[in-house]
């Protein structure tokens, strides 16, 4: 490539991010589990999009749908992890990683690194010993709750006020302390404001918010305020920007608004504090019945998918938009790759 083409937008998009993008939140395990009777879903339904988007690392989130609670939470979580292992056995282009070193090794071999994460600790029930078991299985990041309450705490609701005023339970505090001790990244996505404060108080290491948006643009307690953004920044943490809650309005749910969130977080805490947590969900939503869609709208919200940022094959559109909006190569590399890698290096 000539020097000139290196500096054109097309040249820069081809080159950035040099080592592949990190997307720290993807509901992959749930889909693999639901399709467990079919073969090699990773290769047939995900590989192409991930390769087109140059995705290098994916946070694969264990999540338990309401219909499995409470009795089936543990077996379904184990089933989801089993499908990740079976899937990576079948499709060698993906590999499960448990440390920074393994992630680097996977990238050096051109493989997509899967980091197993947990969104809501329902699979633990109220048994702290299970935290260690999930750690042994490869879980390396834990968010205590989804929108609902559980044995650890309470989720932030999809409204500007009204989440539970209660913080973490004793069990929730223990999960956080032991996670920090084990070397599990603590993820503040979804937690209510009171729980957020409690986690800040009882931890010392960097904290992350794997997939969220700024309340400045979408004012719900499921998202995070400027004060919360600053708290993550002061701790040296990283905030992954979510693609499905960029605006309450469909017409404002655009790629530009997605980058507005990145810009806003960077303006508050610097470029080192912002990353990607796409939370691509349309592929699951599409499979749902109207009844399930209505239930989601009633319980949480109606998602507004961004048409040119709704799956991993669209990832380069973010790179392009960041270039258009004046970000430098170094800044883009940090947002798309290096900031999350710094967290992995420090904590895993
Ligand atoms: Zn989520």
Describe it.
The mean pLDDT is 96. The protein is built from 15 helices and nine strands. Strands 1, 2, 3, 4, 5 and 6 form a six-stranded parallel sheet that branches. Strands 7-8-9 form a three-stranded parallel sheet. The chain is an alpha/beta fold and 348 residues long. Helix 3 crosses helix 5 and helix 11 (255-269) crosses helix 14. It is globular and about 55 Å long. Bound molecules: zinc ion. Zinc ion binds at residues 119, 189-190, 211, 279.
Which helices and strands, and how do they pair?
Layout: H1 3-7, H2 9-15, E1 21-26, H3 28-34, H4 41-52, E2 55-62, H5 73-90, E3 94-96, H6 100-108, E4 112-119, H7 129-137, E5 139-143, H8 170-182, E6 185-187, H9 193-202, E7 208-212, H10 226-234, E8 238-241, H11 255-269, E9 274-276, H12 282-285, H13 290-299, H14 315-324, H15 329-347
Parallel strand pairs: 1-2, 2-4, 3-4, 4-5, 5-6, 7-8, 8-9
Helix pairs in contact: 2-14, 3-5, 11-14
The structure holds zinc ion.
Residues 119, 189-190, 211, 279 line the site of zinc ion.
Number of strands: 9
Computed over alpha carbons, the radius of gyration is: 19 Å
Bound ligand species: zinc ion
Tally the helices: 15
Helical amount among residues, as a percent range? Answer: 40-55%
In short:
Helices cover 45% and strands 13% of the residues.
Can you give keywords for this protein?
globular, three-stranded parallel β-sheet, binds zinc ion, 348 residues, alpha/beta, six-stranded parallel β-sheet, single chain
